Amino acid sequence: MPRDDRGNDVSVHMVSLESSSSEYQDVVERFQQTLDFKQNIVSVERIQNPFLYQAYQLRKQKMERDDGARNNERQLFHGTNPDNITKINTQGFDRSFSGSAHENLLPRNWIPMPRDDRGNDVTVHMVILESSSSEYQDVVERFQQTLDFKQNIVSVERIQNRFLYRAYQLRKQKMERDDGARNNERQLFHGTNPDNITKINMQGFDRSFSGSAHGENWVA
């Protein structure tokens, strides 16, 4: 994936396929089979979005486990308003695009995501919690319980990243199904180098970040 100005992998990368490639030809052939007459294909692009791919794989595993079978994957083609393309590439297919209240799947305490210059929801939103809020006080209390002595808390922020949240929920469902039990969720605190914080907020914990003092006493 290309890097942004901060040196982090971009969320989405569009790759124009060469018309001579087998990937291009396979997509065109499958698409033409859905039509009554052949269309002129201007271009074919591969959408590379690690967050959506991971969420898709988790959903696929869940379906395979529920159905007791594999080979349940199908390739479909879907038309849409050009205004939706960037949002779909970033967030995936979402019923909220058609007026459905898909946002109910997100935590109730989340606030609406800000929009970027193109009018799309940002990927990550950091929300500074009020020290008087129950959410703030709960985090501080849990954190202080892990220490031998109390620390001065400068601030507590909520990380709102819908892609990581949905991927987490899918992983949680899989663990519950594998273990045959619920209530398997635990809250932990993890220190890290400040240079890693933005990448973790964007992509989640990733072993590829290791090698830069993952276990040292920095707190995020």
In whole angstroms, how far apart are the ends?
Answer: 25 Å
Portion in beta strands: 5-15%
Number of strands: 4
Taking Cα atoms only, what radius of gyration do you get, to the nearest Å? Answer: 21 Å
Helix and strand pattern = EHEHHEHEHH
The level of helicity is 25-40%
Discrete helix count: 6
Q: Within the largest sheet, what's the order of strands?
A: 1-2
List low-confidence stretches.
97-104, 213-220
Taking the sheet with the most strands, its summary is: 2 strands, antiparallel
Keywords: Glycosyltransferase, NAD, Nucleus, Transferase
Subcellular location: Nucleus
Biased composition (Basic and acidic residues): 63-76, 175-188
Pfam families: PARP (PF00644)
Give a description of the structure.
The chain is mainly α and 220 residues long. The protein has helices spanning 22-32, 50-67, 85-91, 134-144, 162-179, 197-203; strands spanning 13-16, 45-48, 125-128, 157-160. The strands form 2 sheets. It has a two-stranded antiparallel ribbon. A two-stranded antiparallel ribbon has the order 3-4. The longest helix has 18 residues, at 50-67. It starts with 12 loop residues before the first strand and ends in a 17-residue tail after the last helix.
